[in-house]
Amino acid sequence: MGATLSFRVEDMTCGHCAGTIKGAIEGSIPGAKVEADPMRKLVTVTGTADRAQVAGLISEAGYTPEAA
Prior knowledge:
With about 70 residues, the protein is an alpha+beta fold. Helices cover about 35% and strands about 25% of the residues.
């Protein structure tokens, strides 16, 4: 399906945060598979190789992505 990218998002604290991040990515990258786990503070995206684009989308959603 494509590359898998992982980001630590320390300010993702709940299911609502996870849903916001997931929606931001899936709404902008068709076919992306997003897993957002607020307990582990981890966002994993499969289906794109553009780390900068995904990090930008997480930032635009109001969160702080870090390479995982």
